[in-house]
């Protein structure tokens, strides 16, 4: 089997040769445009990404980025509240928006011959939002209820907030995207408009158009609708506060009577994908899968769920899509009768054994093939491709970085994985959390 895998690997075509057909250009006002051609269906995805997210919010106004995302579906100088989405739906399309730590994005998926209408409406709300004090009151209640449903009513979500705030004590990644409740309650019209006026500008935006389009046609439409919008001369340099050196492990016990199963989790600071330097991030993708991917094949799953039955659930996770330092996390839900301290000790032993012992080459090649297949299948998802480029470009990566990523993943070696594991698994740069229903469970 190993010889067969090696033989197959030799015949593989580099994924970079299968890269999607991408054209880029910049408008005179500084707006970047990315066109991804896919002519297999008469459909287009139109996305506008702003290089601003919750980590760029003013101190004391957490949640304003997400709040403003909601408000952009209100009225403009030519559109009534709700008319934007109603028009998209009436033309057979769908639309939505999302906010992250590093970006805010708006998108429509629609028939290709409706692209001009989408540009007309989206460019209008970039510069002509007409929200009122009544809108603020109504939508603030909406986002507060969203927080109640997703966070306040979920003990695991509340615990994650506390752990993240402990991991990032200085960087704004420690503040939840939706915002702290007491600050959300104070968000005012001025907060939203100040944020909008400063950051919703063409020189802070990336237009991504993917699907059945021609680059020259997209350029002509972009120049017609986005081109006249003036650049923001006061746009600040994107600088975030950095984390000071962490010199000691941080630990939190979160107690909530709604917790059904106690568990232990640990997050380590970890490198993100950087322009021209994505190798460590690629190795961490493998590390997460090897350590805590499938419960049937990962080290944590086999050792704790099957060999010793110490746990009923194990996991390791990593997401390298981040402008600044991200995290690598592991989690264990102990079996009945197993204490959290015993579960944590067993988790640590698996990590130590992983670093000390060689990686099974068959497992490594299996993951390599899975990642390769995933990258090939991704080429069939036009909206996913648009999102991939938008996310990367708002987080300082380039088109070349995006297209190099699949081959960088394929080039990861056992030595790369072991090296990054030794670097990341530093208890002095981690937060360990115990989540329990009662204090008596914290043992």
Automatic annotation (TrEMBL):
PANTHER family: NARDILYSIN, PROTEIN YHJJ
Keyword ATP-binding: no
Keywords: Hydrolase, Metalloprotease, Protease, Signal, Zinc
Signal sequence annotation: 1-19
Domain Peptidase M16 C-terminal: from-to ranges: 188-371
Family: Belongs to the peptidase M16 family.
GO biological process: one example: proteolysis
Pfam families associated with the record: Peptidase_M16, Peptidase_M16_C
One MF annotation (Gene Ontology) recorded for this entry: metallopeptidase activity
Listed name of the protein: Pitrilysin family protein
Domain Peptidase M16 N-terminal: 33-179
Species in which this protein is naturally found: Yoonia rhodophyticola
Source species, domain of life: Bacteria
